[in-house]
Design goal:
This is Transposase. InterPro entries: RNaseH_sf. It comes from Streptomyces roseiscleroticus. This protein folds into three domains: 4-66, no CATH class; 81-144, no CATH class; 160-255, no CATH class. The chain is 44% helix and 13% strand. The chain contains twelve helices and six strands. The chain has helices at residues 4-7, 21-33, 39-49, 53-66, 81-89, 94-107, 117-127, 130-138, 140-144, 206-214, 219-224, 248-255, and strands at residues 160-167, 172-174, 177-179, 182-188, 194-200, 240-245. The longest helix has 14 residues, at 53-66. The radius of gyration is 28 Å and the shape is flat.
Length: 257
């Protein structure tokens, strides 16, 4: 049974007003490049998006002129390097950072306007991840609780490894000093086999990463990741490496050697 509204050809909007603009404009531009764009296409898009045909034509004009298919981005306050440093100094306390910015602005009016506390709060939530905010409040242990690791979908052996550092909560004697050793290791994502490990008596450095990578067979191929094998045993050359919990700076320096 067809209702009177449907039989008259009066259809309501398929998408909420303003939604789908980017995909619609991109599709219309593709039709335009092929020389197939017609008023019927524009009318159909306007009906689906609950806007006028003139609005769709204006969207196309803006896309050709400015190269954007969506609305103009609204300017907003962003967390700068200076604010990140203040967040570190104040342990993630946004209110304290705001007071610090206000005090600096009072001493030096040329430093620019100070955002409101609510604007600063929203910027911190948008620009910093949950792990970063937890790390500012409670340190490295808090940040690591929000890291995503061991969640990569398994494919085959040596397709990807994950690296990590771990401080062992024991005391051992190293050259007459009691220290807590660190373990740097790599696991194969598919099999969860430990393919490389190194234990050091100091905080992880380049030497620990290189030593852990040299543990598997064929270290030169593994280090440069130039070849891989779907049927190699655990510890052979691998295709890629994921280091969500490994110090990125150490990883970059290690591969540069």
């Amino acid at each position: 049974m067809v209702s009177g509204e449907e039989s008259s050809g009066c259809w309501g909007a398929v998408l909420p007003r303003g939604a789908g603009r980017g995909a619609a404009v991109a599709r219309l531009l593709a039709l335009d490049e092929q020389g197939e764009l017609s008023t019927a296409h524009v009318r159909l898009m306007a009906s689906a998006l609950d806007v006028s045909e003139r609005t769709v034509w204006n969207w196309l004009s803006v896309a050709r002129r400015e190269g954007r298919t969506g609305p103009r981005p609204r300017p907003r306050f962003r967390v700068t390097r200076e604010i990140r440093d203040l967040l570190v100094m104040w342990g993630g306390n946004v209110s304290a950072v705001h007071r610090e910015l206000a005090a600096r602005a009072a001493e030096d009016p040329s430093s620019g306007p100070v955002p409101s506390l609510s604007v600063l709060h929203r910027a911190v939530v948008r620009d910093l991840s949950v792990g970063e905010r937890a790390g500012l409040r409670t340190g490295e242990a808090g940040r690591r609780r929000h890291d995503v690791f061991g969640k990569r979908p398994p494919t085959y052996r040596n397709a990807c490894w994950e690296g990590d550092h771990k401080r062992i909560p024991v005391r051992v004697e190293v050259e007459g000093r009691a220290v807590c050793p660190w373990v740097t290791w790599f696991i194969d994502v598919a099999s969860k086999v430990i393919v490389g490990v190194a234990v050091t008596g100091h905080e992880p450095g380049r030497d620990a990463v290189l030593a852990a990578l040299r543990t598997p067979d064929q270290p030169c191929q593994a280090l440069r990741a130039v070849r891989w094998s779907a049927w190699a045993g655990a510890g052979g050359p691998w295709q890629g490496t994921s280091c969500p919990r490994l110090c990125r700076g150490l990883w970059a320096v290690s591969l540069s050697r």
